Amino acid sequence: MATASKKTDWFPYLLLIPASMVTLIIVAWPLAETIRLSFTNSSMSPVESYVGFENYQTMFSRRFPEVIARTFYWMVLSVGIKMVLGTLGAVLLNAAVPGRTLFRVLVMPPWVVPIAVGVFIWGWMYNGQFGMISGLGQRIGLLSGPFEFLATKNSAFLSTVVTDVWIGTPLVTVYLLAAMQGISPDLHEAAWTDGASRLYRFRRITLPLIMPAIATMSLLSAIWTFNSFDIIWILTEGGPRNATTTMIIDTYKTAISRFKYGEGAARAVMIVIFLSLFSAFYFLMISKLAKREQDL
Amino acid sequence: MINKYRWWEYVLIYTGIAMFLTFVLAPFVEAFVVSMRPLDALFSIPYRFITDEMSFDAYFTMWKSVPLLWRYMLNSFGIAAAVTALALLAIIPAAYAFARFEFKGRDTLLAAFLAVNMVSGAVLIIPLYKVMQQLGLLNTYFAMIAPGTAFVIPTGIWLLRSYLMRIPRELEEAALVDGAGRIYTLIRVIIPVALPGIMVVAIATFITAYAQQFLFALTFNSTNALNPLPVGLFQFFGRQDVVWNELMAASLVGILPVLIVYVFLQKYIVAGLTAGAVKE
Question: How far apart are CA A251 and CA A247, in angstroms?
């Protein structure tokens, strides 16, 4: 097919036109426009003028560093728990016990249903008077009275993390399970004949071999979690008293709820800068892992 | 035998699985139990998980509280189906180009498409909102379908590309030698052979497009009758006068179709999710 000819073959470029058009119009152009807007005082009014770095200066003077720190704390906590739970889940679902096919089917629903609908149900569960968590907590004596999970700063923050973990864990689990099943059974059998225990085999065979999958997934998961909007917006809209305001929520509140397009755009540019750093790191990791695989 | 467990290992594994599945499924159980409780039992103190008079009443009365439920479900399905169809038109040729051709800038272009995965809708929403407003596209299905399409294309290209790379080149070479055009070869030879892979990509795209229709619909649409399920139900959420058992019944009915689709197609969904990913 791809015969080396002197003339440029335009056919592959032709094939890329539809995907490129959509991406240029809906992603690339708005991205460029966001950067431009971040240097203007754009708002509801049709008149806008360039204001230099003013938006960036006001942004940093108004407790924005706190929002950045909170975003990273939220992301690291959530991704960390997802990876640990996902690995544990994959190990459990990989065990050769009766019923495992059914268990594997039952893991995915949080990922399948619309994120927002799953979050409504969590919103009800966090209700202090009538929700399941507060209710059962009182029943078994863990809580002394009704506890409104979304009303105080720390518990609201942790509640949004728990819901994010609930939505993200199934994909991590299935992904790592597939990676585990890609491991040749010969390796385990050889170690088993030599008398290696299950835990030893997990540490010395399974874990190193699924490490590339864990690395890929934790980076992808970090990007998705960083960008997470639905969960926080539905549960708390960034409250109480900004306790759950991450960079995405802050951007949306500034731009869409308060119509300060210019200031919102400056926040969006900050997000893009952070995500570019992520992606650079991600591609570096992937190419390193790919190279290591080739060397083996 | 290597996979033989001792009794306490069985206990450990099943306890672990039970705890894991409890976390995963608890919200669905809670939604079901709430939908079965009469309203006064819902607000009883002290808290009771299951009450004496459980009934399916809410499933019949909810049609008055959430009159547009069918409409929301249809909108959700229609938007996800349109996104999937449009995305496939872009994904199939692009994945074919990346799988089969050497051309200048190939790796850069592939990386550029994948970089879209790292951009969130919230970052682009300001210019998109302004342009939709200027073109009079707010409150149309188009405003929800177009952005959704852009965000499912990269993953689709990635998945389908790894599938196409496993198809032997001899197939299309034979067709080309016979004098068939290259577009003809793509449509008549490659697509039929790659159909299972295209189905997997289509299913994964549909589920993603269905699960993530909140931000764009919330921002670009304020016409109730055009709302997809998540935004349609969101209007009730957090209001003082919410009839909770009916809202939970509506949520469960709303997600039932996609759960049924999932149960029947879960093999393909899991295969699609992990195919391109694990190896690359």
Answer: 6
CB contact under 8 A, B274 and A175: yes
| CA atoms lying within 13 Å on the CB side of residue A275 | 27
Residue A130 DSSP class: T
Residue A217 lies in a domain: yes
Cβ-Cβ contacts under 8 Å, A192 against chain B: 2
- Residue ending a domain, choose from B26, B55, B84: B55
ipTM over 0.85: yes
Task: Give the CA count within 13 Å in the CB-facing half-sphere of B218.
Answer: 20
HEC per residue, A238-277? CCCCCCCCCHHHHHHHHHHHCCCHHHHHHHHHHHHHHHHH
Q: What is the per-residue pLDDT across A239-277, written as a single tens digit (0 to 9) for each?
A: 898 899 999 999 999 998 888 999 999 999 999 999 888
Structural domain containing residue B22: 1-55
B140 and B189 housed in the same domain: yes
Q: Do B150 and A229 touch (CB under 8 A)?
A: no
Our count of domains for chain B comes to 2
User: Based on the domain organization, do B119 and B18 belong to the same domain?
Assistant: no
B20 and B48 in a single domain? The answer is: yes
pTM score, whole prediction? 0.89
